[in-house]
Structure formats: C-alpha cells, structure tokens
Amino acid sequence: MKFGPKKLAAILWCGVVIAMASVIGAGPWRRGAWRTPERLAILGAVPAFQFHDQDDQPVTHASLRGSVWVADFIFTQCAGPCPLMTVKMAALQKSLPPQVKFVSFSLDPEHDTPAALKRYAHIFSADESRWKFLTGDQEAIMAQARGMLLAALPATFNQPIIHDGRFVLIDGQGRVRGAYLSNDPQSLADLNRDARRLVAEDAPSRPLDAPQ
C-alpha cells in the first residue's frame, strides 16, 4: 500500500509523538510521581534564559522569581494541539488567582515575532499583565524545553515541529514542581489545585529562600 507525502508525514508524526510520550511517561512525569499528600516534589531548577515578549521586552528567569507560573511550548502557526493548549491556558488564567503568571515559549521564532505573538495573545484574550509569550533563538528555546523536562524537536524537511503538550508548574524560586496533560480534565484540575498550594507556600510573609 502506498501513501502520499502528506499522509506519510502524518503517520510519522503520530509515531514520533507516541514514542516521545512513552519515554516521558516512563520518567518523572508519571501521574502523581512528583506528588505526596504533604507537598510537591522539587524536580529541578528552570534553566536561566533571556527572551523577548510580545511587546519586545526582555523576560528572564530572574524577572519571574517570586511568582508561581505555568509554562507551555507552542507556536502560532501550529495546526495541531497549540490552539487547544492556548484555550486551556486562557481558562486557567481565569480560574487561578492573580498571583499566578503564565509563560508561553514559541518554538517557531522565525515566524513568531513579537508582533505575531501580540496578535496571538489578543486572539486568545490573554491578560498580558500576567501572561507572556516569548520568542528568541530557536535552539535556545528548544534547549529550554528540554531543561524543563519536556520534549521538543525542530521541523525537518518532512516533519513539522514536534513538542510536548504538557503544562509545567514552577514555584516562586524557579523550581519545576509538576507537569500536567493539557488535554486531560483531571490533570488540569490537579494543576489548578497545585498552583494554589504553591501560591500559599510562596506567600510574601515567608522569605523566598526560607526552608520549606
């Protein structure tokens, strides 16, 4: 049986995504692997970064210190999961307290200029006072995804950009505390609960570097 180029690309895409999900699922992202009844585990530190947001202003890991934030990796020309992920992020923006920030890293900076990200933010009614859409060097952003324990691969001749569809939760000290399937209602409910827990832990009355 012969397949046309588009159908073959779709089959390869599905195969790679399934393989990536299997690898990731076997690691720290197994459901509940980072969670105990008492607290969320610390899975690692977010690597240092400096990118530009939709207003062409610099955003760094240090500028987010002190805030609980939720991150994902998307791109505006994505015809697959990205629009759905952004819809879910917009819903979280409405349901979580204002202390929680949101960061969407673009995996396609060639097309996702600050102006393009500004239009995208407007389409999804982003509260830009707390939701940043970041662009920069593609290799650096791919490395950022890997540093945050997510999979991401650049486009090739016969394959589109491949990326993880999970949201990552980061605490006020820049530490990864969990990842959540963006297409799973229970996982999103867990994210909502865990983000609120971190907001309470990172209350201003407690110094950032105080032991937990």
Description:
The structure is a single chain. The protein has 5 helices and 10 strands. The longest helix is centred in the first third of the chain and has 21 residues, at about 5-25. It is of the alpha+beta class. The strands form 3 sheets. Strands 1-10-9-4-5-6 form a 6-stranded mixed β-sheet, sandwiched between helices. It has a two-stranded antiparallel sheet with strand order 2-3. Strands 7-8 form a two-stranded antiparallel ribbon. It has helices at about 5-25, 80-95, 115-125, 140-145, 185-200, and strands at about 45, 50, 60, 70-75, 100-105, 130-135, 150-155, 160-165, 165-170, 175-180. Residues about 1-25 and about 205-210 have low confidence and may be disordered. The chain has a single domain (about 5-200), classed as Glutaredoxin (3-Layer(aba) Sandwich). Strand 5 (about 100-105), helix 3 and strand 6 (about 130-135) form a beta-alpha-beta unit.
Approximate shape: globular
How large is the count of helical segments?
5
CATH architecture: 3-Layer(aba) Sandwich
How does the helix and strand content classify structurally?
alpha+beta
**Tally of discrete structural domains:** 1
The low-confidence runs, each spanning 5 or more residues with pLDDT under 50, are 1-27, 205-212
Radius of gyration (Å): 17 Å
Q: What about the largest sheet?
A: 6 strands, mixed
Strand content: 15-25%
What is the count of β-strands? 10
Percent helix range: 25-40%
